[in-house]
Amino acid sequence: MTSKQKRKLTEALFLLPTLLAFVMVIIIPFIYGIYYSFTNWQGTGAATAWVGLDNYKAIFQEPAFLHSFLVTLLFTVLNVISVNVVAFVISLLVTSEIRGRNVYRAGFFVPNLIGGIVLGLVWQFIFSNILPQIGTAIGSKLLSKSLISNKDTVMATMVIVNTWQYAGYIMLIYVASIQGISKSVLEAAEVDGATYWKRITRIQIPLMANAFTISLFLTLTNSFKMYDVNVALTNGGPTAVFMRKPVQASELLALNIYQTAFKYNNMAQGQAKAVIFFVVLTIFSIIQVSYNKSKEIEA
Amino acid sequence: MKKLVALLLAAMMVLAATGALADIVICQNKVEITAALEEFAKVYEAKTGVPVKVITGGGSSDYNTVLKAEMQSGREPDIWVIEGPTGYELWADKIADQAGAEWTKYTAAAYMDGDKVVGFPVAVEGYGLAYNADILAKAGIDPATLTNYDAYAAAFEKLDSMKAELGLDMVVSMVAGTTTGMTWVTGLHNFNVYLTVGNKRNDTTYIDQVLAGKVDAERFHQYCQYVALLFKYSDPDMLINGTQDSQLAAFANGKAAFYHQGNWMDPSLVQLNPSFEIAYAPHAFLHEDTDGILVNPPSWYVVNENGNKDEAIAFLNFLATSEEGADYMVNKAAMVPAFTNVTLAPTTPLSKSVMEWNAAGKTYDWQQYKLPDGFGMGTLGAIYELLASGAIDVDTFEAMMIDAIASIAK
């Protein structure tokens, strides 16, 4: 055995444990999942019958699933914008000369350390109990009722809570990126008479393109897969009418899949939904990353 | 090492020996009554000389593991607990028919398999419309007259018009929200009113229809009117945002005349010290009279066909018919006995009322758990919430419910 072959073998051996774990817990269940989505599997034992595309056909005739799909898209768009705008603004704030900026950095990041379930329950209390009292006191018609049980405002509460939780994390990425920009470039622009706004839009943002790529990717996938806050804050409710059928106004895809599989005990159909979920999320992510990558520049 | 093995062996022999001594072995699942049951077992032994050993598995999943282990231990329990059809079917070939046993004369809540009487009801739980007797008295309404839709409609209207005078915020305290996870109250418990009220226990006419995707049009129409009536006189905010706690608080503080919950709320209710008399009125949704509340055992004792069958049945008879048995069930274990001969009354108000209805033999069955998984709480619960929030009217509600039920059969 030559030394080159030996090295290759060593490398392969080092890779083996991780590869084995990856195959066991990701690849095999994934393939099984796809297989089960074509059967009438009930969650225990082996699948009893092959049903072809029946599960997929049933899904696309189900108003609740289509509604979840649309609501998830809506939530993703609103949430990606909201989280990134807020994160970018506070990252500018905490990288400026403001006093106590380290305290702010820590403060904005702390919500991210609280689990989604706890956070959801705390905010549910705020929206259902505290805000209505304030609303009644100031005579606001909108605020005097719980924003969560109103089907028109429930998505806004989801976006507010998720932004509150996630913006601090994205802020860190932007802060790191802003600090990586050479001071000399900004100083030169300032000497040349560029305004603060010009410096942000013409220098900082283009130079931060790779931070936007990663931040948008993280928020996009995070919003699309949102589950914990959804379940704890709104439990999918309240009920709305869609295509003349009752549907859950804030039931995102992940929760809809969970309910199909575990509440309705319809494992195979839940699995089929999960496969669709995976395909759609993959397509969106690839489009987003390749678009943002094309915007990245070196300075 | 040798010492350890010897110790273990000794321990096993002691266990085996005590196992062999007991003539009746009970394997049960309620941790909270273990001490009371063991005490009752001693009373039984002192009286009859038959030793009784109690094995308890905590929590329902744990219980099933413990039971399986006991079944394989070579000393099968003589009596164990089943919690419904799943437990029954698992052990069906070991379970004895107790038809003709003395206790069967005093209960309508035995677990039946065709004509076979196989399960002794451990206790019963029940629900109806709990009422605040003081408020009804002040409004001049006799709760005994609340046995049909028209009586309720008149009573609700009268109470609603006297709200300020009686200090009421709402007539009925009821919850139906999905965000608060309360749709089981509507989609399961209230829907069961349609399924069983007015029928004999074990009569499955309406649930069979529903499972075939159909409803009895006239009965269902009347039921929908009843739901709309309950919602009309409930507080809209309570319906959608109310939790189990706020629903109870409104009733216990005298802000609501009626309360749509079961006797499992008694421990929390007693903590709030309600200063008035409480009892159950029936969910009488039809125009003709129906007089009974919805009562069902959460679990049953079954007897091992191959074990000490006669001793086990004798023990159950003693439990159901003796004073000691009544004292154990009511006072020691704080349960509502499923037997009409037991006169001892629980001290908590809702359980006391369940007991009285049960003793009078005026009960209807629970069949909501025969609905497909998720259907009651999820699919139907959502439609109830739409009506509660005012998004749809009662006719649309009826049509949507019928539509949803039709989808079961597909």
What secondary-structure arrangement, pairings included, does this model have?
The complex is a heterodimer of chains A (299) and B (410).
Chain A: H1 3-36, H2 54-60, H3 63-95, H4 101-109, H5 116-138, H6 154-179, H7 183-191, H8 196-207, H9 209-224, H10 228-233, E1 239-242, E2 245-248, H11 253-263, H12 267-295
Antiparallel strand pairs in A: 1-2
Helix pairs in contact in A: 2-12, 3-4, 3-6, 3-9, 4-6, 6-9, 7-8, 9-12, 11-12
Chain B: H1 2-21, E1 24-28, H2 34-48, E2 52-56, H3 60-72, E3 79-82, H4 85-91, E4 111-113, E5 116-121, E6 125-127, E7 129-132, H5 133-138, H6 149-161, H7 163-166, E8 170-173, H8 183-196, H9 205-211, H10 217-232, H11 236-241, H12 244-252, E9 256-259, H13 266-271, E10 278-281, E11 293-296, E12 300-303, H14 309-321, H15 323-332, H16 349-359, E13 363-364, H17 375-388, H18 394-406
Parallel strand pairs in B: 1-2, 1-3, 8-9, 11-13
Antiparallel strand pairs in B: 3-12, 4-5, 5-12, 6-11, 7-9, 7-10
Key attributes of the depicted protein:
heterodimer; A: 299 residues; mainly alpha; MetI-like fold; two-stranded antiparallel ribbon; 12 helices; 3% strand; flat; B: 410 residues; alpha/beta; D-Maltodextrin-Binding Protein, domain 2; 2 domains; six-stranded mixed β-sheet; 18 helices; 48% helix
Concise summary:
The complex is a heterodimer of chains A (299) and B (410). Chain A is an all-alpha fold.
Tell me about this structure.
Chain A is an all-alpha fold and 299 residues long. Chain A has one domain: MetI-like (MetI-like fold, Orthogonal Bundle), CATH 1.10.3720. Chain A has 12 helices and 2 strands. A two-stranded antiparallel ribbon of chain A has the order 1-2. Chain A is flat and about 75 Å long. The two termini of chain A are 47 Å apart. Chain B is of the alpha/beta class and 410 residues long. Chain B folds into 2 domains: 2-122 and 297-321, D-Maltodextrin-Binding Protein, domain 2; 127-296 and 366-406, D-Maltodextrin-Binding Protein, domain 2. Chain B is built from 18 helices and 13 strands. Chain B has helices spanning 2-21, 34-48, 60-72, 85-91, 133-138, 149-161, 163-166, 183-196, 205-211, 217-232, 236-241, 244-252, 266-271, 309-321, 323-332, 349-359, 375-388, 394-406; strands spanning 24-28, 52-56, 79-82, 111-113, 116-121, 125-127, 129-132, 170-173, 256-259, 278-281, 293-296, 300-303, 363-364. In chain B, the strands form 3 sheets. A 6-stranded mixed beta sheet of chain B has the order 2-1-3-12-5-4, sandwiched between helices. Chain B has a 4-stranded mixed beta sheet with strand order 8-9-7-10. In chain B, a hairpin with a 2-residue loop joins strand 4 and strand 5. In chain B, helix 8 (183-196) packs across helix 17 (375-388) and helix 10 crosses helix 18 (394-406). The longest helix of chain B has 20 residues, at 2-21. Chain B is globular, with a radius of gyration of 24 Å. Mean pLDDT of chain B is 90; it is low at 14-20. Chain A binds chain B through residues 124, 128, 145-146, 148-149, 151, 154, 234-241, 245-248, 259, 263-266, and chain B through 177-181, 237, 240-241, 372-375, 377-379, 382-383, 385-386, 389, 391-392, 400, 403-404.
